[in-house]
Amino acid sequence: MLEDQPRDTAFSLKIRVPKKYWWTFTGQASADGKWVDPEYYNADFVNKKLRETEQTLRNIYDVLDLLYPDETITYDHIRRHYDPNSSKIVKAGNCKTIPSLEQIYHMFFEEKQRRKGIKELTQKSYRSRMNNIFQFFSKKQGIDTIRHRDLDLFEKWLGEQKNEKGEPRFCRNYRNKHLTLVYDLVSFAVKKDYLQAMPLVALELSYESSKPPQYLLPQQREKLLTVEAPSLVKARDIAQFLMYTGFSWIDYTNLKNEHLMDDKCWRVQRQKTEVWSMPILLPEAKAIINKYGGIEKLPRPDDSDLNKELKHLAEFAGIANDLLHPLRISDFRETFASMLENEFMLEQRVIQVMMGHTNPRQIQSYSRLMPARILYELEQWKRRTGMESLGAQG
Fold it and tell me: What are phi and psi of 7, to 5 degrees?
């Protein structure tokens, strides 16, 4: 602002410049993005800040023009998006205090729970993401202060977080979930009239391609399940049971006697989706039940401890170097699906029901189709069409 002059704009940089160095005040025209005479000791800094502010205001105007094509964009429209310290908005004569980020989250979560219902595992995922969001942003921070530059800094911060081994804590896809949640919270504030316009444009996120399922082939399973290390016996038995039932870890830990029907088929309502899964009872799984004296007596250690033991189990079995990544609990569900499709030759519709999925496309995330299954289908097609006999005649 000009020295000794009253402030007449909400876009002040709060930088004082003597009148004699301010070109537009002295009647000189600004040129090449310079409003302050270069003779002023801090001219470069001030002119840079002015150029950045001008570009920011132009960007805000462009966004508002797209959001409200039928309205005339006024000074107040731009000010409300530019000034992050504004604590109130006015609409239709009413005044609303803008809630904090934490308050908006609780309102957002409650409405989502009321409309669609949120499963316990999904709630846990939300809480985990919000803890990271609160760690970067302040819980008390007004929802109206968040801009794209904040999302850029947040994404950078997420990428810098490391685990105890010095490895990145969050993959790109999980970082995107954090950014999307922040965007959804701001959008919710607009929907509830705490903000008059959306300060963020649609996010342009890139995702890492999904990794192929980990399919333990018969020879790998045999090596794994014949390891005799005493300290790894329970991990080996759990691996065998999960590979031949396809249960997720949460469903396995909640497994009861009542879930087995006539000693032939499982009927388990999945904890994650409440969809029923109905895998058949295979001999390999039954052997583990008999060993421990019942379903409810199966070992159920902490999953993080089990994953560590599985890594050692694969090393003892000599298959660690052949795997796509260190052996973990989720690999057994993928192995089960791949085994049903490639070894049992079951149709995807049957696999879908056995695993408790509602969409056949979900099977593609678990099952890894092998060349042997493709050749099998080719032979079946030849028999159905009579091409096999024609080939023999030729």
Answer: -75, 130
169 in helix, strand or coil?
Answer: coil
Sequence-distant (6+) residues with CB within 8 A of 159 are 168, 170, 175
Tokens of residue 81, six digits = 């998006």
Query: Domain limits of the chain?
Result: 19-83, 97-191, 218-381
Residue recorded with tokens 């060349």: 371
Contacts with 286 (C-beta within 8 Å, 6 or more apart), sequence order: 263
Helix boundaries (H) for the chain? 23-26, 43-67, 75-82, 101-115, 120-136, 148-160, 172-191, 218-224, 233-243, 249-253, 283-292, 303-317, 330-342, 348-355, 371-385, 387-393
CATH class for domain 218-381?
mainly alpha
Rg of the chain over all Cα atoms, to the nearest angstrom: 31
pLDDT of 97 above 50: yes
Conformation bin of residue 92: beta by default, left when phi > 0, alpha when psi is -120 to 50: left
- What is the rounded distance in angstroms from the CA atom of residue 120 to the CA atom of residue 38? 62
Confidence grade of residue 296 (pLDDT, cut at 50, 70, 90):
very high
